[in-house]
Amino acid sequence: MDISAKNIVSRWMLYISFAAAFPILCWAEKSQNGQVLRVIDGDTITIITDTQQSQKIRLSEIDTPERDQPWGQQASQTLSRKVLKKSIVAKVSGVDRYDRVIAEIFVGGRNINHEMVAEGHAWAYRRYLKNHRLLELERIAKENGLGLWGFSKDPIPPWLWRKGTR
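The structure assignment produced for this chain is given below.
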């Protein structure tokens, strides 16, 4: 390949990179309002936005047990009681590889992500953790035997469960 062909390829690769990153940049630190239509599991919901679009949201920085994992059903039921059919504000931080919006969820000013960890229904998701307050909330829930911490003294984190470490 000659120099000019390499330059053209390099430019196209740069354009493709920007195009791929653009949706994520657009979502970064944006708020979105909606009503919760469905709770998929303990950390994923579907909302209908103010513009009548359906949007799947993954709660940021937390990870709840999978549905087939011990405490998975309880985590899902708890999230349902907190958000189902309620108006929420989602503080969006990005989009994941499954095209779900990643967000902190608020109902009437209450931070639902924090509540799920504080009540022992979720782990602070260390791989994506930015707010280290969640580690403190998890520690307190564990010390007090709340939620999954009272159910099992050594629960398997969902990220290990998904890898088959059961």
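Interim note for the steering committee: The chain is about 40% helix and 30% strand. The first strand starts at residue 30 and ends at 41.
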